[in-house]
Design goal:
This protein has about 280 residues and is α+β, with helices and mostly antiparallel strands. It has five helices and eight strands, in the order αααααββββββββ. The chain has three domains: about 45 residues; about 55 residues, Type 1 dockerin domain; about 120 residues, Immunoglobulin-like. The termini are far apart.
């Protein structure tokens, strides 16, 4: 639709129209004093508005800092109160590992703990490595203490050959649940270079021993199995073998001492032991 021309009756007088047109384009002088008053008024109004916002922001930051400080303080208290647990490393509890209270730590203490875990019977004092849980790591910690031994590595044997010595145990009809023995070479010119597990499934893994015995002449070997009695050996078995190096012509002799064994219930049993050099095939 076309825009109709304004009615001449509705138009402003020509002089007034011209005066208004000129006033719109003309610069109106304002004194500097009035200008500053307007600016000052604006500043005060803005300061009131944004000043409150800044204070609110400061309060929020202060509260956040207090929360962070509280968390930091709590973590310090927690660490001090829980000690070794936070370090996550094994820290042994000394005599706490003597679970059966016979005055020494041996494989039978580890056997007690393994059977306790198996049967759901554990106490907080059995947390040997102090990581707040009683589990297989504590069993292992005791087993490692049981076979710890001080030994000096022997000199390298020139022209040595490798030999294998099998260790046999016979529980004479009783179940074999655990054993511990000291084994040593009684002749010169031979040293231990490795240890392996046995034939029976219950003792197929290498026994516990102190790795520092390698290149020495004596070792404590020990093992247990907390399986049901029917899974344990009752006749003569090879429970492990010791690899040695020796001069080819040497006649090597070995000894087993401090032999102890227990049945599936942990009761001590009498066993026969033998060290036999394996013939080369
Ligand atoms: Ca003990
Ligand atoms: Ca533990």
């Amino acid at each position: 639709m076309a825009n109709p021309e304004p009615d001449p009756q509705d138009r402003l007088p020509e002089r007034l129209e011209e005066a208004l047109r000129q006033s719109a384009s003309k610069r109106i002088p304002v004194s500097q004093e009035r200008d500053e008053k307007v600016l000052l008024g604006c500043r005060e109004q803005l300061r009131g508005k944004f000043g409150r916002a800044r204070w609110q922001q400061r309060i929020i930051w202060a509260a956040a800092a207090l929360v962070v400080l509280a968390l930091f303080g709590w973590s310090l208290i927690y660490r001090v109160g829980n000690g070794p647990r936070d370090r996550g490393t094994a820290e042994f509890a000394g005599n706490a590992a003597d679970l059966n209270g016979n005055g020494r730590v041996d494989i039978f203490d580890a056997f007690v703990l393994a059977r306790g875990i198996r049967d759901g019977r554990t106490g907080t004092t059995w947390d040997i490595n102090r990581d707040a849980v009683v589990d297989a790591k504590d069993v292992l910690a005791i087993a490692q203490l049981a076979v710890r031994i001080g030994t000096q590595p022997k000199q390298k044997i020139e022209g040595a050959s490798f030999r294998v010595i099998d260790i046999f145990l016979d529980p004479k009809g009783k179940s074999l649940g655990a054993y511990q023995l000291h084994w040593k070479i009684t002749t010169p010119n031979a040293r231990i270079v490795g240890i392996e597990g046995g034939d029976h499934p219950a003792f197929r893994n290498p026994p516990q021993y102190d790795p520092r015995v390698i290149q020495g002449e004596r070792v404590v070997v020990a093992a247990f199995n907390a399986a049901a009695e029917k899974s344990l050996p009752k006749t003569k078995i090879r429970i492990g073998s010791i690899h040695i190096e020796a001069t080819p012509a040497a006649t090597c002799r070995f000894e087993i001492e401090n032999l102890e064994a227990a049945d599936a219930q942990g009761s001590r049993i009498s066993v026969n032991a033998q060290s036999v050099e394996r013939r080369k095939r």
